[in-house]
């Protein structure tokens, strides 16, 4: 038991120092309806375009590669008790479901249920873009505004061996649900 806890601490510390992680720069969801934005890697290159599809019954975002090909879709699920958004792959198959906990008395709690693989837990201050995404106690992603001085910009650091598209799509979903309007 203690070895497992020690291994987790060691892995999370390595993550905190940037060992084996890729950083992305994202913009906070814009206020104007239909605003699109780019997700850039740490070299400043455009990696994904987030296309906010307007005039649809359900809130929909498409993640597209730089050439405009759909990579993933993030779509709200109306008429649910809990806030949730579905993440689909390029072919429309569901790969994950992002859910907000029904009752969160002390902190924000979210889960990412993956169709294949372990579920992920999200904890921290989602509203202020300061949270982590973990799998079985191991940090696989961190979201933070502290890396940027630019307003409405935040960073996402994702560990190697993690599906970056799912994590970035989940971040778009969490941003959309925590900053409605």
Walk me through the topology:
Elements: H1 2-16, E1 21-27, E2 37-41, E3 46-53, E4 60-64, E5 70-76, E6 84-89, E7 94-100, E8 108-114, E9 120-125, E10 130-135, E11 138-144, E12 153-159, H2 164-178
Antiparallel strand pairs: 1-2, 1-12, 2-3, 3-4, 4-5, 5-6, 6-7, 7-8, 8-9, 9-10, 10-11, 11-12
Could you explain how this protein is built, in words?
With 181 residues, this protein is of the alpha+beta class. The protein has one domain: Tubby Protein, Chain A (Alpha-Beta Barrel). Helices cover 17% and strands 43% of the residues. It has two helices and twelve strands, in the order αββββββββββββα. Strands 1-2-3-4-5-6-7-8-9-10-11-12 form a twelve-stranded antiparallel barrel. Strand 7 and strand 8 form a beta hairpin. The termini are far apart. The mean pLDDT is 83. Belongs to the LOR family. InterPro entries: LOR (IPR007612), LOR_sf (IPR038595), Tubby-like_C (IPR025659).
Taking pLDDT < 50 over at least 5 consecutive residues as the criterion, the unreliable ranges are none
So how many helices?
A: 2
Q: Say what oligomer this is.
A: single chain
CATH class: Alpha Beta
Could you give me the name of the CATH homologous superfamily? Tubby Protein, Chain A
Pfam family, one: LOR
Family: Belongs to the LOR family.
